[in-house]
Design brief:
This protein is about 50% helix and about 10% strand. With about 270 residues, the chain is of the alpha/beta class. The relative contact order is 0.14.
Length: about 270
């Protein structure tokens, strides 16, 4: 009986199956390594800072004349200022003080950010604002928890877009601090740290594109302050080596302020 021209030699089939099986084992082994490393990172970091950030909501720079400019900060623990020892060192307070100096107006800070929040929580943060609240400016910093919880980029960005559009509908200019580079986290072992760095950069780029679509302005925290966290980890990170120190928050605020001041100035103009 003659062999069909389309028949595949058995050796080829067996070889291909072996290659697929081998690749699957490598993949499973890689996942196991990453899972173990994630557990190591969680043990190293722990929760020495607790889960509550300092309450910095107040009117900053009251000495200036005029009605307070309304500023709201949304997002995760960085936006909330977890790890700052004094309320004036939180990200929101530093943004409020810098904006007040630039505008020569008092700034009333409202912090809607929640420690541990993913992008999906932004909707609840906007929902939690009073119905008659009309912020003039909003700053969003979110994304790190999306990476650690393996949320798809498209899902994260969809939640961010919804929040930006809702804030703009309330009359606010919006500035987004894109996902920080998780490659700066020394407690996270390799290769998990390298993977986190790549994924956080991908999310940051997608967030910047979404901000442009929604009429907001994006600031790349990975590029603007990431190198400081890599070269000066002892100074830039707080007690848990995961959240910023007072200096880390100052650097982060300095990166965001030019965009925030420009957006508010354009709105006033």
């Amino acid at each position: 009986m003659s062999r069909s021209r389309d028949a595949v030699p058995r050796s080829v089939v067996v070889g291909a199956a072996g290659a697929v099986l081998g690749a699957g084992l490598v993949l499973l082994g890689g996942r196991a390594v990453l899972t173990r490393q994630a557990a190591v990172a969680r043990r190293r970091i722990g929760k020495p800072l607790g889960e509550e950030a300092l309450d910095a909501d107040r009117v900053w720079r009251r000495r200036f004349d005029g009605p307070p400019l309304e500023l709201v900060v949304l997002g995760d623990s960085i936006a909330a200022g977890l790890g700052a020892d004094r309320r004036k060192d939180t990200l929101g307070a530093r943004l409020a003080k810098g904006l007040a100096r630039a505008e020569r107006r008092p700034v009333r800070l409202r912090t809607a950010a929640i420690v541990g929040a993913e992008s999906s929580v932004l909707a609840a943060q906007v929902d939690g604002l009073p119905a008659d609240y009309r912020p003039e400016a909003a700053v969003i910093v979110v994304g790190g928890n999306d990476i650690t919880h393996r949320v798809p980029v498209a899902t994260s960005v969809a939640h961010l877009e919804e929040a930006m559009l809702r804030l703009r509908a309330r009359g606010a200019v919006v500035v987004v601090g894109t996902c920080p580079d998780l490659g700066a986290l020394r407690p996270v072992p390799q290769p998990l740290r390298a993977l986190g760095s790549r994924l956080s950069r991908q999310l940051a780029e997608a967030q910047a594109e979404a901000a442009a679509r929604c009429g907001a302005r994006a600031v790349s925290l990975g590029r603007a302050v990431g190198p400081f966290f890599v070269t000066q980890p002892d100074e830039m990170f707080g007690l848990d080596r995961f959240h910023p120190s007072a200096l880390g928050y100052r650097r982060t605020a300095e990166a965001l302020l030019p965009a925030l001041i420009a957006e508010v100035g354009g709105r006033d103009g």
